[in-house]
Write a structure and sequence with these properties.
The protein is α+β, with helices and mostly antiparallel strands. Helix content is 31%, strand content 24%. It has a nine-stranded antiparallel beta sheet. A seven-stranded antiparallel beta sheet has the order 4-5-6-7-12-19-18.
Length: 838
């Protein structure tokens, strides 16, 4: 934008009353929002990440967010940096991703596979590829540069999970500086306040972005950052590309974006400082930042222009311009704590809990620190609350926090495990609302996936492969033959995504959701996979081509190959999906003929096999594994998160799953954070608390950054979410239509308590234990029902207690095969007490 255009632009916005006079209203001094909070005996102040120095880099900064807006706070003194994100700021735009050659290549690939020519089939399968996904992008930086801060003392930095607020404090002489940052979901604003006691603050505030952009000062105390995202960003793992970041001048080919900063101050002087705002001698200032993009929906060109985006940002700030900092904070706290305080957990404490968080991570293992596991659990819940809210986009590979234009793996939705892992803790840790963006993502991918199913495979229904993005990419990736089939050609993403739809129904019992939203999408995924199944040489139905993400094998001639038939992951996912669709069909009284066809297909399918070492075979034959310690253990998906494999129903596969896990770990698996988190869930389902403890130790020691982010390396948020879910799985399971209490309690947590966990069928569960033995369980049901309860091994029901006001009388039920039936009334809590068995 030239100088004349710049002047006209400022004038136009000023004439429209860009922020209005009310914005300049001063904000009053707030009380310290870190005051100790005790509610029902719970010390909510224990959920803090604490440090004695600013973050040295992005991987040590602290995340805040409201699901849509995110910021990483460094806590600097001379320069505080808040790296900013907005969840719809992606590269690219909706486009045709079809490949006319894919459909004609499919028969040849199948012929090679059924002839046992796996290496040749791998090469032929490269013809079944489309474009890569687009990338999630950084919005920019808010920089707060303070003058005269070369020497300071008494520094502290903390992230308060209960308040969703980052606070830094330091002293220079007699002057004490306190800075607080949060992102409000009700206000849709980033809020930063700086307070000074016994002194004043002087410095400059600026905005900038790594994307093509500009910053202008619209009115005194206001900065407007605007720009346009690339039309395409090549994945970071594709080196040597001639134009990895491509911009287009065509409107709609690339997302427009903007951020508005409003500065409000008490005392001192505000002055223009180039493309920044200067402050001198102020006692307090508050920053309000709003942001928006040109995004309309995932199937429409991002057509909102710069004035529209600006108007939206202006309105967001204007709506809260007359509010004091205290009012904004109070509103934010009420909204956040409504979710965060649903669950409390106590796994014990040691002296280590009093130390700074980075020291606890660095020195992990030198002393007992059971509270770190509880803190990590609550941090995972915090991350889900702050990265995924109704009406926002689903949390991606890095949640909503990313500072790179070419982020690792495009910071996209990696649907062969990572996107699904993000939402494993949603229902069980009582954050069902935060699950909503994922459910909507599945529905929208189903829309684009219908076109992919037809154009790539000539099939009805819908399909999803290895990756997706804001534009709901569903095709096999690889840039039309440049990628490897082992990750590109995996058409089972839809089946895995549908697990979330069924789980939402099982936890909530919402028949309307099942009928109107879940079932149509699940049916479409099943329809595609019913067509995808083909008779193999033995006449049984199988999948071909089939890959086991992202692992490879050696064929009979010793050649490395990627594509086989009937991989265990395919078979188990299809069995899970078909079973759910059949059950839903019966519940809803619809599609009886379709359900019968799926049942018939299940009976005709090949079955997973057990190998010579007692392991579950990953592919259709017992091939030599090219990487015996591979990070993916995809063939155990029937154990977790699906519920196809269990000790009671499939004892042989259950034992084979354990043996598979042992062999994989012996060969070095679990070397990435997300992989270790998945392994934690396997051990919980295998009911082995000691192994849960050992692998949680490995996660903290090898794959956790000092800000508690999961380290692949680099950072991926799925490890955080997966490990949070695993801690819950160790304490409570309900996948077998019964409440399984303390099924895999780690022995390093001998004394503990958890309240507010959710079980399937809408039951809230509180547990207490002593000497590693279950003492009590309190159950509160959302409906009147009879529930099966399986106590911890070695424990038996000894008493039932109902609220006195209810005067409920129920004889003590007798256990059958270790399970007791408990009658629950809607809204009435019942407490079960336990004693040694026998």
């Amino acid at each position: 934008m030239g100088e004349t255009e710049d002047m006209d632009y400022k004038a136009a916005w000023t004439r429209r009353g860009f922020l209005g006079a009310s914005v300049a209203a001063p904000m009053t001094l707030a009380q310290d929002s870190g005051n100790r909070q005790l509610e029902g005996g719970e010390d909510w102040t224990q959920w803090r990440l604490r440090y004695q120095r600013p973050a040295e880099n992005w991987n040590a900064a602290l995340p805040i967010g409201n699901g849509r807006l995110g910021a990483m706070v460094f806590g600097g003194v001379q320069e505080e940096v808040l790296q900013l994100n907005e969840d719809t700021l992606w590269s690219g735009y909706p486009r045709d991703t079809s490949n006319p050659k894919a459909l004609e290549a499919l028969p040849g690939v199948r012929r090679l596979l059924f002839e046992g020519k796996y290496a040749e089939a791998t090469q032929a399968a490269k013809a079944i590829q489309g474009p890569f996904s687009q990338s999630y992008l950084p919005l920019g930086y808010l920089r707060i540069k303070q003058e005269g801060m070369q020497r300071y003392e008494d520094y502290s930095l903390e992230l308060d999970l209960d308040s969703a607020l980052v606070r830094s404090r330091y002293r220079v002489g007699r002057a004490v500086y306190t800075r607080e940052c949060f992102v409000s979901a009700p206000a849709q604003l980033l809020v930063v306040r700086m307070r000074v006691e016994n002194g004043g603050w002087s410095g400059i505030l600026t905005l900038d972005s790594p994307l093509r952009s500009q910053v202008i000062s619209v009115l005194p105390g206001q900065l407007w950052l605007n720009g346009k995202a690339p039309s395409h960003v090549e994945p970071s793992y594709r080196g040597g590309h001639p134009e990895p970041v491509k911009y287009s001048d065509v409107e709609g080919e690339g997302m427009r974006f903007g951020a508005l900063l409003q500065v409000q101050h008490e005392g001192g002087v505000l002055y223009p400082a180039g493309n920044g705002v200067g402050l001198a001698g102020t006692r307090q200032f508050t920053l309000l930042l709003s942001a928006g993009t040109g995004f309309r929906d995932s199937f429409t060109l991002p057509g909102r222009n710069e004035p529209e985006i600006g108007e939206g940002c202006r309105d967001q700030i204007a709506r809260r311009a007359g509010s004091s900092f205290e009012e904004l904070l109070e509103e934010h706290l009420a909204d956040h704590r409504r979710l965060f305080r649903r669950v409390s957990i106590d796994l014990g404490r040691s002296a280590a809990a009093a130390k700074p968080t980075d020291q606890r991570i660095t020195n992990y293992g030198a002393e007992a620190d059971p509270h770190l596991a509880a803190l990590y659990f609550q941090f995972g819940r915090y991350l889900l609350i702050t990265s995924s809210r109704p009406e926002t986009q689903a949390a991606n590979l890095q949640g909503i926090w990313n500072d790179m234009v070419r982020a690792p793996w495009s910071s996209n939705y990696t649907t062969n495990i990572n996107a699904e892992m993000n939402y494993w803790p949603a229902e069980v840790t009582n954050l069902s609302e935060c699950h909503e963006p994922m459910l909507r993502l599945v529905e929208e991918i189903a829309r684009s996936g219908a076109s992919t199913a037809k154009s790539y495979y000539g099939l009805d229904g819908w399909v999803c492969h290895h990756n997706s993005d804001l534009w709901r990419l569903s095709n096999p990736m690889g840039d039309y033959g440049q990628g490897e089939p082992v990750w590109a050609l995996w058409p089972l993403g839809g089946a895995w995504l549908c697990e979330h739809l069924w789980e939402r129904y099982r936890f909530t019992g919402d028949q309307g959701f099942l009928r109107d939203r879940a079932y149509p999408v699940m049916r479409g995924a099943a329809q595609f996979l019913r067509g995808w199944l083909v008779p193999g040489p033995d006449g049984k139905l199988t999948t071909a081509p089939s890959t086991s993400p992202e692992n490879t094998f050696l064929d009979a001639s010793g050649k490395r190959a990627q594509v086989a038939t009937g991989c265990a992951m395919d078979l188990l996912l299809i069995q899970s999906l078909f079973t759910h669709v059949i059950a839903a069909s019966q519940l809803l009284g619809v599609d009886a003929a379709f359900a019968q066809d799926l049942q018939s297909a299940l009976q005709q399918m090949v079955q997973p096999k057990v190998g010579s070492k007692g392991q579950l075979l990953e592919w259709n034959e017992e091939f030599v594994e090219a990487e015996p310690g591979h990070r993916h253990v995809s063939h155990l998906i029937g154990l977790h998160p699906a519920n196809v494999v269990s000790a009671k129903r499939t004892p042989a596969l259950f034992a084979a799953s354990r043996r598979t896990l042992e062999l994989r770990l012996q060969a070095g698996s679990g070397h990435t954070g997300w992989s270790r988190a998945w392994i934690l869930n396997f051990w919980a389902r295998l009911r082995d608390g000691q192994k849960v403890a050992e692998n949680l130790d490995a996660l903290f020691a090898k794959s956790t950054l000092t800000n508690l982010f999961d380290n692949h390396p680099p950072f991926q948020i799925d490890g955080n979410f997966g490990a949070t879910a695993a801690i819950a799985e160790a304490l409570l399971q309900s996948q077998e239509d019964e409440l399984d209490l303390l099924p895999a309690l780690p022995p390093v947590w001998p004394v503990g308590r958890v309240t507010g966990l959710k079980a399937r069928s809408g039951i809230t569960v509180d547990l207490t234990w002593q000497d590693a033995k279950l003492q009590s369980a309190t159950l509160l049901s959302a409906k009147t029902q009879t529930v099966r309860v399986r106590p911890q091994a070695g424990r038996a029901l000894s008493a039932l207690a109902y609220p006195v006001a209810r005067n409920v009388q129920q004889p003590l039920p007798q256990a059958v095969d270790g399970v007791v039936n408990i009658n629950l009334e809607i809204g009435t809590a019942v407490t079960l007490r336990f004693a040694p068995e026998g």
